[in-house]
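Hi everyone, sorry if this is the wrong subforum. Our group has a chain we'd like a structural model of before ordering constructs, and none of us has done structure prediction before. Sequence below.
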Amino acid sequence: MVNISNNEIPFEEYIRPLENRWSKFWTKKDQEMIYHANDYGYFLLEAKCNWKFAIENYCESYHLPWVHPGLNAYSKIDNHYHIQGLPNRFAGQGTLVYNPHFKSKINFPTFPGWSKKKEMCAEYISLFPNVMLGLHKDHYYVYWLEPVSYNHIKEHIEIYYVGEEAATSDKYRNLRKKNYDMWYNIQVEDLNIIEGMQEGRNSSIYNGGNFSPVMDNPTHHFNKWIVATLTDQNNSD
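Answer:
Right subforum, don't worry. Here is the predicted structure as C-alpha cells:
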C-alpha cells in the first residue's frame, strides 16, 4: 500500500486507539512476550479477488455457520459482538467464548496480564487498510494482504505465542501444528467466498450491494473508511 496524499500520521498515533482497546486484554509486558513460532508459524494463500473483499469478509461473522461450521461449534455467531474503532481506523468482531483446545492434555501458556473477565474472549480486527489481527489469551496472529493486482492477492499469516518455549519447544510442537492446521483450514474455507464476491461484481444485475443494519456495521465502517480515503477526507467519523 502506498499513500500519495501526503497526509500520513505516525504509526504510533495511528495504532493508539487499537492499543488502548487491547490494553483491556493484555498489558505492555504481555505484548513484549509474543514470540514467533519457529515451525508452523507462517503460511501463504492466494486468492483471485480484490484485497478489499478479504477485509469485508473478516469484518463480519454471519457467514460462520455456513462457511466455518467447525469454528462456529466453539465460537458461535450468537456469542459475537461488533467492533468499530474510532477514529475510523479499524473494525471487526469479538467473541465471548473461544476455546478450541479445551480437550487438550497440554495447553499453551497464557498472557499473565490477560483480564480474568475476558478469559474466554478473543477479538478479530481489521486494521485499515490491509492488516487483520487475531488476539487470544494464548496466541496472536497477523494476517496481512499483499495486493498483486485488482483481482489477485497474496495472504500472509504469521503466528505468535506467549514466550519462547511455547513458540519453539518440542513440548508444544503438536499443539502448534494443531493450531496451525486449524487457522489454515479456516482461511482456506474463506477463499471461495471472497473469490465469489469478485465474480459477483461482474454480474449485469449487481446493484452496488446492500448492508444489513444488524449484521454489517463493521463492514459498513470499513467501506466508509474507503470512501473517506479515496475522497481525501479526514479519517474520522
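For your construct planning: The helical segments are 11-22, 28-31, 51-59, 64-67, 69-74, 164-168, 173-200, 217-230. Residues 27-201+210-230 form a domain with the Naphthalene 1,2-dioxygenase Alpha Subunit; Chain A, domain 1 fold (CATH 3.90.380.10).
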